[in-house]
Design a protein that fits this description.
244 residues, mainly beta, 3 helices
Length: 244
């Protein structure tokens, strides 16, 4: 496991994450919560609609922190709800005046690949490279090039701790607070790696992590759990040890 840290390193040390289990879920995981005693985690999933909103077919699971054994739950547990309220708060646990800032913007998408042939490859039915054609294909191409999507960027002390492009912004999806006395945050970088930052802006990044989501700090501050997508409907549950 490669760990990147600046010259002014964290007082904490996040160790190499260990894979606890590979789990198969119905829907996309949108919440991950620890039980207070550290023996269980809860996962909530949902399904996105065409607008990127998670509002369909909610499902709930409880799993063992020791071996990742998964079991469906009829409801989102009360202890998980309490944890998630704390985890997803935009204010830091160590300061009532320091908070994650959310900025909304609109991004225009551009075509990412050239057409393979036909009228689109020529720019117009007559071969005019100016692309002045008015066929249905041309109209569709120009409409595609003008697509706009909503973007929400989350920042804390100048660091990006969440980025949502064309999908619903879910508080806590890309970050999780440490207990108050540790004064730190675990978050997912735009490259999909797990990182930790303390209240002084000192950082540690775990370079071997990828496609991480839902970082969740245990209530006692000794572990960080997170998921990594490993296939269709499959996710690896990782737990990283934390030492002071």
């Amino acid at each position: 496991m490669v760990i990147t840290a600046p010259a002014l390193a964290l007082a904490l040390l996040v160790g190499a994450p260990a894979k606890t289990a590979t789990i198969e879920l119905k829907g996309e995981p949108i919440r991950l919560a620890w039980a207070a005693d550290g023996t269980q985690l809860a996962i909530a999933t949902g399904e996105r609609d065409k607008a990127g909103m998670v509002n369909n077919n909610p499902r709930f699971y409880v799993l063992s922190a020791a071996d990742g054994k998964l079991a469906p739950s009829p409801t989102w547990p009360e202890w998980a709800d309490k944890y998630w309220t704390w985890k997803s708060n935009n204010y830091t646990p160590w300061s009532s005046t320091t908070a994650i800032e959310a900025k909304s913007d609109v991004k225009t998408l551009n075509a990412t690949s050239a057409p393979m042939g036909g009228a689109l490859a020529k720019g117009s039915p007559s071969g005019d490279p100016s692309g002045g054609g008015t066929t249905a294909e041309e109209v569709a191409r120009h409409a595609y090039e003008r697509q706009q999507v909503n973007v929400v960027t989350l920042t804390l002390m100048g660091e990006t701790v969440g980025y949502f492009e064309g999908v619903q912004f879910i508080p806590g999806y890309t970050f999780g607070w440490a207990p108050k006395d540790l004064a730190s945050i675990a978050y997912v970088t735009q490259a999909g790696r797990l990182a930790v930052m303390d209240k002084d802006g000192k950082k540690q990044q775990l370079d071997d992590t990828k496609n991480a989501l839902l970082p969740a700090w245990s209530v006692d501050g000794t572990k960080i759990a997170f998921l990594q997508r490993s296939g269709k409907n499959k996710y690896d549950l990782f737990v990283a040890p934390v030492t002071k």
